[in-house]
Design brief:
186 residues, single chain
């Protein structure tokens, strides 16, 4: 009688373990698929956002550069003792527009925002790739580990490749120059 209860209890535990392990594999595959979609989502965001920001920054820098060039030309004329009223008037009209809409020239702020967006986008893509690598590694380790490999083999859960990279090339080695801390020289 006691042996029968023990065997029934062990059978129930075994079935619960099989169900739990099966659910791990199924949910892992779904999360891996979602992480692949997130990589695509972030790359799409990058492809849409960065060119538009680049055009905006170039336009803003061009606008400020034109104003500075007009002021520089007017200054040159004044230093030669020539009449620069026309150039000053044109430059000031450009400055009025800038001053009215923005109290100061802000090309550096726009460039900083662009750099921030580039960094943020790069971080999001890297995070999405990292997540895919981690999820795939967890899945594949569990797939080959004892005793979960029994469930993986029983339900034919195949190995997943995750993020694929070329198996040869410079990205597999780290040069001595890459081992040094980068120096920023502005």
């Amino acid at each position: 009688m006691n042996i029968t209860i023990i065997l029934i209890g062990l059978s129930v535990l075994l079935v619960l373990w099989v169900i739990s392990t099966y659910n791990f594999f199924v949910s892992s595959k779904a999360r891996i698929k979602a992480s692949i979609q997130e990589i695509g989502n972030q790359l799409k965001r990058q492809a849409d956002l960065i060119p538009n920001l680049e055009v905006s920054v170039k336009g803003y820098i061009k606008h400020e550069k034109g104003i500075m060039e007009m002021l520089s030309e007017a200054r040159k004329l004044l230093s030669k003792g020539q009449d620069a009223s026309k150039q000053i008037s044109e430059a000031l009209s450009g400055l009025k527009i800038v001053v009215e809409s923005n109290p100061e020239l802000k090309a550096n702020t726009v460039v900083e925002n662009l750099m921030g967006e580039l960094r943020d986008t790069s971080d999001k893509v890297m995070y999405a790739r990292r997540l895919l690598i981690d999820l795939t590694a967890d899945y594949n380790v569990k797939r080959v580990s004892v005793p979960s490999n029994l469930v993986a083999n029983m339900f034919k859960f195949d190995e997943l490749k995750g993020l694929e990279t070329a198996e040869d090339g410079e990205h597999l080695t780290v040069s001595s120059a890459e081992m040094k801390s980068p120096k920023v020289n502005l």
